[in-house]
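Notes from the 1:1 (GR / supervisor)

We went over the backlog. Supervisor wanted to see one worked example end to end before approving the batch request, so GR pasted a single chain during the call. The sequence is below; no edits were made to it. Supervisor asked that the structure be written out right there so they could see what the output format looks like.
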Amino acid sequence: MRYFNTEGPIHCTQHYCLPPLTRWDMEEILGLIERQKYFLLHAPRQTGKTSCMIALMEQLNRVGRYQALYVNIETAQTAREEVPRAMRAICGAIGASARGLLGEERLFEWLNQALAEQGADGALSGMLTRWSAAAERPIVLLLDEVDALIGDTLVSLLRQLRTGYTQRPGLPFPQTVMLCSVRDLHDYRIHARSEPAPITGGSAFNIKAKSLRLGDFSPEETQRLLQEHTQETGQAFTPEALTRVWELTQGQPWLVNAIAYRTCFEQPEGRDHRHPISVAMIDAAKESMIVERVTHLDQLADKLREERVRRVIEPMLAGETLDSVPLDDRDYLVDLGLLRRAQGGGLEVANPIYREVLPRMLASGPQDSLPQSAPIWLDAQGRLDPERLLKAFLGFWRQHGEPLLRSAPYAEIAPHLVLMAFLHRVVNGGGSLEREYAIGAGRMDLCLRYGSVTLGIELKVWRDGRPDPITEGLTQLDGYLNGLGLDTGWLVIFDRRAGQPPIEARSRVEEASSPAGRPIRVIRA
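Structure output shown during the call:
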C-alpha cells in the first residue's frame, strides 16, 4: 500500500504523489536546456525540488538526447571555507553519482588529473571539461543543496562553473547546469574570507539565464493528492475535510502530506479505512503536529532566532508596518516560505499553521517559566468562567509580569507573548487559542475557545508619543467581535510608555462601550 510521504524525495510507486514533472513548466525547462542555458531552481525546503530534479534526470536519460545527472552536494558543507576539502567533496559526490546512476567510472580519474594540473580552485571545471569531452551526448548537470555551501567554497563553485561556461564552445563543458537552493541566487550575500566585502550571488554567477520557483500545490492539486488515498483504499475525505486541509496548509506540500499521513495512518480512527476522514480528525492531526514540534515546524521555529527574521516577524505580530525593514530581509522570509506576498498586495504569513506556530513558539519560553497554579478560572462544573479568568490573569500579571517580560525573546511584543503563555496554560485543559494579526493594523486579536465559551480579545500597546489607543481599539474590537458573532469581549492595553508605575500598581479593569454598543472589559496592564 502506498502512503503520504514526509521524508525525502517522492517515489510514485511507494507514495501518493502528483507526477513531479507536472509541477513546473516542462516546456520552459526543455527550452532552457535546448538553448544551453544555466539556470536556478529555488523554493522553500520540503516543497518537492529534489523530486522534480530526479524526475527530470530520469526523463532526459530515458529520451536519450542528453546525459543528465542529479547530484546532492551538501556533504561539502562540513568543509566550510576550506576550498580544497570542499572541492574534493563536491567532485567526489559528482563522481559517485555518475558511477551509481550512469555507470560512468572515469570521473575519479579525471578528478585526480584536474587536481594535479589545476589545483583545488580548478578541480571542478577540469573534471567537467574532461567528462564533457568524452561524453557521447551533451551533459545536463543538476546540482542540489547549493545553499549548503558558504563563503569561499560557494564562490569557487560558482566561478568555476562560470569559467567553464564562458569558454564554450572552444572547450567542452556541460550544456546545461541547474543549481537548486532555497533562495534565489541574486539574493545571496556571500561573505568570503578572500574578499574584503560581501559578494552578491548575481555577480559571482552572472551567466544565470533564469530563476525558476517551484510553487505550492493549488487547491485542485491538494484535493487530487488526497483522493489518491481514496482511490487506493476506499477511505473518503468528507468535502469539509478536503477544504480544511487546503485552508490549514494553503498547499504547502510537506504540510499536506503530514496532516494526511497522521490522519489516515496514525490516528486509530483513521487507520480504520472504513471510517471517512472528518474535519475534526484533520484538526486533531494539525494540533498534534504543533504540540509535538515535528521536524518541519521545529526547523521553522529555529529560524525565529535569526536577527533578520526577528526584524520582520516582530512588527508583523505587533500589527506594525514594515516600512523600515530592508527588502532583502522581507525577500529572505518569502524564500524561506515563512511569508508570502498576497494577491492583493502586502506580506502575510504563508498559511494558518505557520500563523499559529510563530507566536506559540515565541511564547514557549514565558510559558515554561510560568509558576504552577490551580485552574481557578473554572467553575464547579469545570466550565470556563470569564470573570474568574480575568481575576486570575490580573493576579498573575501583577505578581509575575515583570520577570516574565524579560524572558520573552522579542522585546517589542513581550506583553503579547506573556499573555498568550498564560492563555495557553488555560486552554491546555481542553480548549484552543486562535490568533489574527495584520500588518499596519497596530493590534493582535485572540480568540479563546473552551467548551461552550468563546472569548474575543484584542491586544493594543500604548507607546511613547502616541495617544491612548482605547478609542481605536474599541472600534477595531467591534469588527473582530462581529466576525466571531460575539456581543462582548476584552480590550487589553499594555502601557509601555517610559516612567510608568510598576505593573502591580497600574494594572486595572475598566468598563467601556464599543461604537456598536457592545459592553467591553478594558484591561490596562
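Supervisor's comment: The radius of gyration is 27 Å.
Batch request approved.
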